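Technical appendix A lists one of the benchmark inputs used to test multi-chain prediction within the project. The record comprises two sequence entries:
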Amino acid sequence: MTRIKNLFLRSTSKARRNYLFVLMILFALGYVWRPGFTQTQSTASGISATAETKSFVPFALFSDPKYTQLELVCLLAVLVIAISGLIYALLLVKQVMGANTGTKKMQEIASAVREGSNAYLSAQFKKIGPLIVIITILLFITYTGEVSAFRWGRSGAFLIGALFSWAVGFVGMRLATTGNLRVAAAATKSYGEAMQLGYRTGTITGMLTDGLGLLGGTMIFLIFGDFAYEALLGFGFGGTLLALFMRVGGGIYTKAADVGADLVGKIEKDIPEDDPRNAATIADNVGDNVGDCAGMAADIFESYEVTIVAAMILGMASFGHKGVIFPLLVRGIGVLGSIISTYTVKAGPNDTSDTALKSVHRGFWIGSAISIIGFFALGFGYLHFSVDYFGLAKLNELAKNGYWAVNPMNLPWLANFGIIGLDLRPAWTCLIGVFLAIALNKVTSYYTHTSHNPVKSLAKSCQTGHATNIIQGFAVGYESTVVSILVIAAAIFLSVLCYAGTPPLFVAYGIAMTGIGMLTLTGNTISMDVFGPVADNANGIGEMGYEPVEMEKEKPGSYKRARQILADLDAVGNTTKAETKGIAIGSAVIAAVSLFSSFIAVISVGSEEKINLMTVGQYLTEAGKLTVANPIVFIGFLLGGAVPFLFSSMLIRAVGRAAFYIVHECRIQFRDPHIWDGTKKPDYGRVVNICTQTAQKELIGPGFLAIVTPILVGFLLGPYALGGFLAGMILVGQLLAVFMSNAGGAWDNAKKMIEDGIYGGKGSDAHKAAVTGDTVGDPLKDTAGPAVNPLIKVMNMVSLLTLGLVLQYNLMAPKFDLPSSRIIGTIIAIICAFAIGWAVWQSKRENEEMSVSAMMNESEEKQSEELEEVK
Amino acid sequence: MKIHYYMLCYRFEALVASHLEPEAFGLYMSVGTQKNTRGNVLFFEIDPDLQSDYFRLDDIQERCVPHKDGSPKRSKYISIYRVLEHLDLSSFGKLYLTTADGRVMHLEAADYDITAEEPAPHLYQELCPVSPMVVSRLAPGAFVKFMTDPSHPVSIPRLFFADMLLEIDKTGHLAGNLPYSDPIHIVDCVREVKTAPGNKQTKTVSRNPQIHGFFRTIRRGFFLGDQTGMKFYSFPDRRSLEVDYSKWWRSATESMVS
């Protein structure tokens, strides 16, 4: 019977794969096929689609007189800085690799975690690799411009962006799984050494992100010059898409392993965290790396990419080439700031978590100070404009329309400190970005740290039970979203104020520069984030791998001291990790707002390559149509607002499903008396495999949703509905992401607070209520919440990239009102609808019993065989 | 196979014969063979040469036999009622403390230094044969005498109990790290014992309390005694627990069950 069930299961999954494959082919055909006659039609605005034929020469800026020698030298210097960042990372790799690796037992545990992490990313690469190739080909085929170099550029940049994003995640995680062992070994000697190693392990990932992001953006600009946006969109999309998959897959993995390990270990069997008898222990540690390290690094990398993409596109459209070069220079300063400031993070041999945290924060402050000084120094040196730069006629026309503040001779004092021709507004907006990052850090810290009232109130509410803790957690989470959005709104408002009296694209550029400023210290941010899982893993290795009696024999008190050091580092890591989440979400909103302006600009002129030709009137006319008074836009707005909920629901279900499998596997293994009495190692690999396979399987549905939904809305309801869709998605996505991250973080720390000895401490009724809150918050804060961040950007990028086709083939008002256009639009919409339907069905399928019974049978058979052998 | 005698004294009272060594017995009593049960277990190792008119021991060799497959008999219950009082005080050996997931630590009987008595009040968790939690102004030795004094209208022949942590902070509240279910009531009981006029020696906090984080609340250790004498099982200090018994202590402190 079981075999029949399995056969049925296999054939069903095979049929499903075939069905998907056919759908993908249909999708590709429907997507790329265009009747030839439509290509020679005139556009609504009377511009022939083939009229703007461009000539393209690679590295043209080196021969373009518009670029001064100084600018070229600066660009090359940025390139050198990017490479320096990578070299710095390499030096840190050597430092970390050269550290002591502890005892054999510790090495074995670390090796299991490393192997599990590698297996996960390899499996993910195999799964996503073909999809990336398909999308690369699709981007190549569907490019609607005329210059074939751009076709290659966009698809190639997509591939590179994706590879960079994957490399950041992979190398970062690889190093984290190497560093954790060294931190655990160093903790037996000194607090400072352990802390420094952990932080520098994180810095490697941070500098890799900085270096690769800056290298990619600068190289694209050097190759494509004024047409860099053609490739930049692909570069940004590649990084974003990979980050989405790594975030989603990592998030599902980490929480499935964590919840599975806790449910069966702590709740069912009442054994401590990281107990080596629990088969899910290694998977739990692997999960910390794939979720918090690989996922977060890829996520921030894509934010880094997308903000530079938005700034460069909008910079070219508003300020011209100086508007493109300045963000690159700012990023260069940021990399330098990160190199210097991360190196200053140190701790003494007898420090505590408080002093260590101060050192990390001091590093961030030093980096911020270097960056701010750098922005303004650069601004003073570089941001000089003459009337000729913009053209007198253009300035006069803008002034006539009320845009007086474009003219460099006419700027307010704060913008140039009285120096005619100087325009420091981009530097000011970068400064706003730095403050935004700091403010979001503080807000996140306030709502999730144990030293502030929100978490204290949660811990207090645990005294009255599980429900009051949950209720209070919701209240704290909701409130935190309001404060976060106020901070972001204030930053955007200040950016808008900086560009008062300028056309909308200048304003959008200002917002994009806020994003640039915000992520200036990406090196520090990722160092802080990755430090979390490294310290967490080191604590696990200490728990499982230290030999207390031997350590005490060697040096009395050393075991206790080492465990205390690791516990302290874990606490510091938890705090720094939580703080960076606010930055990741905030940057998504800022980048999305910038990209949204690009979106309106593309609607205005028909395609992104004509943004330069756009008039202010065109922009305002199209932006004016994006109003909720238009029911179609409002429908789009509603749909956009709903998507983050559906996406989160899919992810949370996925965690539950994956945890279900893990619990079953652990229960089976616990029945082995030799595992229970500690004389036999559990089969950690089986749980790691389950996590890897389920995470890969589960990420496809949400991934499809993210890619396909904007395409469906665009083709079905038209570009304005798509605009509404994006607006709704950005707003709700931001609110939901902050709520989930902060509520989850607050529940987690409320539990830790009680465990530290208040309201009865561990095992008390209050603690039980706190554990419930933490379990509820886990998939929110580590799976769904962080994944909404790349979702926002993927949907924006997909919308931007497909907008040209949407304008031509949407069902509401296609550019060429021909039956064939509507037929194509209908086919694409139907395929997308099917794909979304499949994704939703996939997320709700309830075939656990079959799968688990099959899995149990297999595992039980294996176990019986092993027991026989033992006998 | 050698037969061991064990006396279970928390959370129920029983005399059991078993082929298992104490650690294996503790693991078995705590989590069972299928690992589907859990819970803290306290038991004494009883003199293997135990002789008793009260318990049916003469045919124990016939009753406690290995299973057909040769595996040891894990438990053969001899008595489940009034066991504590019918064993000689001298027959009580080591005390075994088993955590909810089966980690076992043993305590040896030690001399109790009466001069090291700390000032009242004390918090005691009676464990066998009755199990209320009480606040008392009596030190352990006096408390045993008081509770087992047959001249009192209510008494028991012998008592096994634990001395529990009772820290009251400057604000008059119970220390935050203590996981007792009703901290305010404990403070009230302490106040009553301290201030009550006359001869109020003890005050019951709870008749049958749920003891969360039980091992974390143990202060000096466990006491077993009657009118004839007292045995003291000293609980290791914090450092020793964290280093020498690190696995047991971690299991004990992370436990979520009573």
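The CA atoms of residues 140 and 155 of chain A lie 5 Å apart. Residues 1-11, 30-53, 866-871 of chain A have pLDDT under 50 and may be disordered. Comparable benchmark entries are summarised in Table A2.
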